[in-house]
């Protein structure tokens, strides 16, 4: 079997909260259980949504929780050349095209993009997005925990955006190019990212690269069913007293911690987690209220 390389890829829109700790821990335990590497990538792709200082705070918090990464941290803000290079190559091959359709127009034509600009041969203009022509829609994929996951055909067929109207690179493109260039073999992340997985697999296909495997972890939601996030004021996790939150997050991932482990040093709890991690103990559900 080839060498395992996993990753945790937070967006620095705010400090780490419980939901992002779950994703960090799940990807860490899985990588260590596979004797693999665990990389950290800061997805600072969308400056208006970022909080100054959040990236450093996230890294300090990971260290405080005993989650030590391999190699150097990557920042998506340093990768623009790679993203633009790929977009230019696809534009030159006619695999990608400029699109001037507004969200309102797309809503009016049924909610999914109907390829209206595919044959318009538009030249670049401020306010135009770039879309990738999807020739072979990905209508399902296999998740390591959940098995076959279906993707609605209308979504799978859509020519999706690889560069946004505001000039920012699209998340799906950046994630896939980075995962390839970092040699990632498996993506472990929250179940909120199941939906874009089809698009990401479609990017691998267009790039002629075998896709990674995927493992989606249960998502922590609040009592009204919303994902814990900065937008709905999920509190930052405590960096100075990590043990209680670490134990709660491990219980969330299906661990039953022995009493002596709960009382042990933080590094021992994490090491115990690496040794006792099994995908089958993960809850079956996609969401858990917290
Ligand atoms: N940056 C994304 C987020 O924080 C995660 C991307 C991924 O794991 O693929 O939601």
TrEMBL record:
EC id: 6.1.1.-
Cofactor comment: Binds 1 zinc ion per subunit.
Molecular function GO labels: ligase activity
Motif ('KMSKS' region): 227-231
Matches recorded under Gene3D superfamilies: HUPs
Oxidoreductase found in the keyword field: no
Ranges of residues in domain Glutamyl/glutaminyl-tRNA synthetase class Ib catalytic: 7-236
Keyword Aminoacyl-tRNA synthetase recorded: yes
Binding residue positions for L-glutamate: 7-11, 43, 171, 189
Keywords assigned: Aminoacyl-tRNA synthetase, ATP-binding, Ligase, Metal-binding, Nucleotide-binding, Protein biosynthesis, Zinc
Motif ('HIGH' region): 10-20
Named cofactor requirement(s): Zn(2+)
Name of the top EC class for this enzyme: ligase
Signal peptide positions on this chain: none
Protein family (similarity comment): Belongs to the class-I aminoacyl-tRNA synthetase family. GluQ subfamily.
Biological role: Catalyzes the tRNA-independent activation of glutamate in presence of ATP and the subsequent transfer of glutamate onto a tRNA(Asp). Glutamate is transferred on the 2-amino-5-(4,5-dihydroxy-2-cyclopenten-1-yl) moiety of the queuosine in the wobble position of the QUC anticodon.
Record's protein name: Glutamyl-Q tRNA(Asp) synthetase
């Amino acid at each position: 079997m080839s060498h395992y390389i996993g990753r945790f890829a937070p967006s620095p829109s705010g400090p780490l909260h419980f939901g992002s700790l779950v994703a960090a821990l799940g990807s860490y335990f899985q990588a260590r259980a596979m004797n693999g590497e665990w990389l950290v990538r800061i997805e600072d792709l969308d400056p208006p949504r970022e909080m100054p200082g959040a990236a450093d705070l996230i890294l300090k918090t990971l260290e405080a929780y005993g989650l030590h990464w391999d190699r150097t941290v990557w920042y998506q803000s340093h990768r623009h050349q790679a993203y633009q290079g790929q977009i230019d190559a696809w534009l030159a091959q006619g695999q990608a095209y400029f699109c001037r359709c507004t969200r309102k127009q797309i809503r009016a034509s049924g909610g999914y993009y109907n390829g209206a600009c595919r044959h318009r041969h538009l030249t670049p203009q401020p306010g135009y997005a770039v879309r990738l022509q999807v020739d072979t829609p990905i209508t399902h994929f296999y998740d390591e925990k959940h098995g076959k996951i279906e993707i609605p055909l209308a979504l799978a067929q859509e020519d999706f955006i690889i560069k946004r109207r505001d000039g920012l690179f699209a998340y799906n493109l950046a994630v896939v190019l980075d995962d390839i260039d970092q040699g990632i073999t498996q993506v472990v992340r929250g179940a909120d990212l199941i939906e874009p997985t089809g698009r990401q697999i479609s990017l691998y296909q267009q790039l002629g690269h075998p896709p990674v495997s995927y493992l989606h972890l249960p998502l922590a939601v609040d009592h009204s069913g919303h994902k814990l996030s900065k937008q709905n004021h999920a509190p930052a996790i405590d960096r100075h007293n990590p043990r209680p939150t670490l134990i709660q997050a491990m219980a969330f991932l299906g661990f039953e911690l022995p009493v002596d482990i709960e009382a042990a040093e933080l590094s021992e709890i994490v090491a115990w987690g690496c040794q006792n991690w099994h995908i089958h103990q993960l809850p079956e559900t996609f969401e858990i209220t917290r």
